[in-house]
């Protein structure tokens, strides 16, 4: 049962802490920016759901707010889904958590100033697996999916009951942006390549960046999150590249109004 733990407004932003499932400790943190007024008549914004990694054992803090804030800066309403992990990770519980979050966001789209047709997701590692499943399997697909060093073909190692999303990719899969590092020693680069191959075979639009080197879990590569020696100098570029890609997929802000979808 959905309940609000915290609701407060700081300047032009509202923060909501929402419990989706108290028993399984599933929560949705919402950062809702204002519209109208100083925002040039903007009435609706696109939204981004952040799905942290953590091997289906926990939800990573480094892949939560630091990521959400990047998309807030880009003008999105941002949500962080802390889904079922640990003893509660049995499939398809995490996917149902995502679908509950998507339903709630769409139900409150008017109040939260969101265009319900422009909701994207981003997932990292095991959260990337969940995001890939949302893109390929769920009946409540996002408009676009961004996958960071995602668990794909090695899914059984992290969640033995979960599916390989490659097996479900078809023409209904949403456009995807995939980034990873060649030398990832936790989730092999073959996971990303397998998913990209599935997208290509199905004719699904995608963009991909495989960086020369970066340790697993590099998130946005901000220095306060990890040692910059972890990654090559180009790795942080994925953040802005993904935002530019989203402008092609879901549209851009033009004269204070969210513009039309450009390409897909």
Present the secondary structure layout.
Elements: E1 3-10, E2 13-21, E3 26-33, E4 45-51, H1 65-73, E5 77-82, H2 93-107, E6 114-124, H3 126-136, E7 144-148, H4 155-158, E8 176-181, H5 189-202, E9 206-211, H6 237-250, E10 253-254, E11 257-258
Parallel strand pairs: 4-5, 4-6, 6-7, 7-8, 8-9
Antiparallel strand pairs: 1-2, 2-3, 3-5, 10-11
Which features characterize this protein?
single chain, 264 residues, alpha/beta, Rossmann fold, nine-stranded mixed β-sheet, two-stranded antiparallel ribbon, 25% helix
Sum this structure up briefly.
The chain is α/β, with parallel strands linked by helices and 264 residues long.
The helical percent reads 25-40%
CATH class: Alpha Beta
Distance between the termini: 36 Å
Q: Name the assembly state.
A: single chain
Structural class: alpha/beta
Write down the CATH topology.
Rossmann fold
Beta content: 25-35%
What is the radius of gyration? 17 Å
Total discrete domains:
1
CATH superfamily: Alpha/Beta hydrolase fold, catalytic domain
Low-confidence stretches: none
Average pLDDT, all residues: 91
Q: Helices and strands, in N-to-C order?
A: EEEEHEHEHEHEHEHEE
Number of strands: 11
What is the number of helices?
A: 6
Query: What is the strand arrangement across the widest sheet?
Result: 1-2-3-5-4-6-7-8-9
Largest sheet: 9 strands, mixed
């Amino acid at each position: 049962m959905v309940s609000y733990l915290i609701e407060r407004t700081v300047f032009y932003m509202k923060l909501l802490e929402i419990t989706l499932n108290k028993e399984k400790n599933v929560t949705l943190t919402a950062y809702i920016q204002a519209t109208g007024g100083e925002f040039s008549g903007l009435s609706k914004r696109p939204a981004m759901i952040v799905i942290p990694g953590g091997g289906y054992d926990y939800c990573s803090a480094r892949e939560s707010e630091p990521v959400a804030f990047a998309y807030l800066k880009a003008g999105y309403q941002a949500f962080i889904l802390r889904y079922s992990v640990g003893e509660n990770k049995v499939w398809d519980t995490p996917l149902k958590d995502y679908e509950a979050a998507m339903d709630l966001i769409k139900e409150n789209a008017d109040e939260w100033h969101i265009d319900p047709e422009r909701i994207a997701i981003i997932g990292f590692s095991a959260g990337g697996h969940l995001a890939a499943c949302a893109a390929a399997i769920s009946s409540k697909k996002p408009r676009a999916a961004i996958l960071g060093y995602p668990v794909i073909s090695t899914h059984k190692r992290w969640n033995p009951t979960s599916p390989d999303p490659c097996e479900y990719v078809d023409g209904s899969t949403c456009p995807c942006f995939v980034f990873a590092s060649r030398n990832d020693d936790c989730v092999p680069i073959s996971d990303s390549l397998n998913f990209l191959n599935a997208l290509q075979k199905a004719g699904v639009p995608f963009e991909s960046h495989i960086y020369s080197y970066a340790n697993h879990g590099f998130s946005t590569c901000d220095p306060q999150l990890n040692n910059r020696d972890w990654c090559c100098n180009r790795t942080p570029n994925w953040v802005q590249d993904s935002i530019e890609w989203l402008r092609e997929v879901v549209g851009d802000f033009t004269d204070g109004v969210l513009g039309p979808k450009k390409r897909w």
